[in-house]
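Lab notebook page, bench 4
Experiment: in silico fold of construct C2
Operator: M.H.
Input chain length: 455 residues
Purpose: comparison with the prior construct
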Amino acid sequence: MIVCKNCGHQNEDNDTFCGSCGKFLEWTGERVAVAQPEPEPAPPPPPPTPEPTHVGLMDRVKHAVGIEEVAAQPQPAPPVQPAPTPVAQAPASAPVPPATPLRTVPFTSAAPPAPSAATPWTPPPATSTPLAPAVPSREPVLAGVGAPAVVPTPSGAARDDEPISRRPTSVAPAVARPRPAARSLEAPTRRHPGDLICGQCGEGNDPVRHFCRRCGNTLDEALVVSLPWYRRFFNRVFRVREREAGWRPKRVGAPNVMGGVWRIIRLALFAVLIVAVLAFALIQPFRAGVINRVTNTVAPLRIQLLPHYDAIHPTGASASTATAGHLPTLAVDHYLNTYWAASANDPKPYLKVLFATPVDLATIGFDSGASGTAPADAFAVQPRPKAVHIVCSDGTTKELTLKDEDPTIAKNAQFYTLDAKQVTYVEIFIESTYLPAGAAPSSVAISEVEFKTKD
C-alpha cells in the first residue's frame, strides 16, 4: 500500500499517481507494509538441575580442621593494557611538581576464608586500568582515574559539533531532489465493467478515483466501461433492483399486488419466448409451419404497402376486324412501330387478348394510335381509342377513358389499375375514338396493350 503524504489517500502498490489529489507518488507517496501478526516466541528450555555433590567423611573432617586443599584453578590470562589516554600538555612556563611517591601496603599473613567444598573459589579480577601519573594543569581534572583534561577554547571560536552561523535570508535554500528514473508507459492492464477509462492512456480506474492511476490525467471526462447488452438484460430481469441510500417507497399502505402480478407475467412471457425459440431452432415441422404462417400474413400487407410490378406477356390475340398488314397479334408483340387497326366499316371493334395460364392482373396499359414510317401510319392520321370497356374472364369489368397522347413522345404507356384474379383472357371494347381531321382509313388503331402483375 502507498499512502499519499499530501492528502492521506491509500493507493495500490502498482499506482503511479494518487487517486484523490493526482500527485506523483514517487515524490509524495510513502510505501507502508501491512503489519503481519508476529509468531509467539517459543518458551526457553528449563535450566538443568545441578546434581548434588556427595561429601565423604574425610572431606568433612578436613573442612572442620581447616586443612582443606584448594583445587587448582586455571590462571586467568594477563589483562590487556589499554593505550594511554592523551593528556593536555602543560605550558612550558608552568613548574613541574615532584612526583608523588607510591604508598606501600603492609603484607598481612591473615589468610582469606577457605571456600566451601560445594562452591569453588574464584580469584578477584585484576584492575585493568593502571594509575597514570598526576600532571599539573590549570583546569580541574575530572573525577576518575585516566579522565582526559578539558582544553579551554576561545570565546569567539566555534566548536566542531556546533553549526556554522550565517545571516538569515529571504529565500529558502533549494533542496535538490533526486530525479526519478524514466518510466516507459506500458499498454493498459485492466478494463473491468464500471471502470473509468482514461482519455489519455486508456487505463481503467476505480470509479472512486479522480485522477488516472497510470498517467495522472484527470478523470472528469472519462468513459465508463459498460456491460454487454445480454448481461444488462439478464440483470434487469432476474436481479433484485438495488436502491440508493435514503430511498423511500412512494406508496404507503397495502402491498403493491399489481407490481408482483406484472413481474410474474413478465417472467412467464420470457419463459414462453425461450421455449418458442428453442422449438423453432430444433423442430423442423414447427419451423416450417411458422415460416408459412408468417409468409401468408406478411405477404398481403407487403403487397399493399410496397408492391412489386412484373410484366406479363400474352400468348395470342384476336379481334372483330383487322386491316391488311395490321393484324391483332401486332398489338401484343412488344414493338411500338407496329399496330392493330380495325376496318373502317366496323362501328364497335373489340380486341381479345389470351394467356396460356391463369394470371392475376394488377394493371393494364395502352399505347394509342398508329406508329410507323409511312404517311398513312402517322399518329394524327389514324383514329385513337377514347372510351374503353374491359371485361375479364373472372367477370371483372372496368370502364376507362384514355388520354390522346403520342407514345413516341410520351415514352411510357398509359397504365390503369385492374384487379383481376386467375384471368385467362381479357376483352377490350372500343366505345368511342379520337377522330382525325381528315377521312379515317380505319375505325381505330392501337400500337401496344401491356399487362402487369403485383407481388
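Observations: The first strand starts at residue 2 and ends at 4. The radius of gyration is 63 Å.
Next step: discuss at group meeting.
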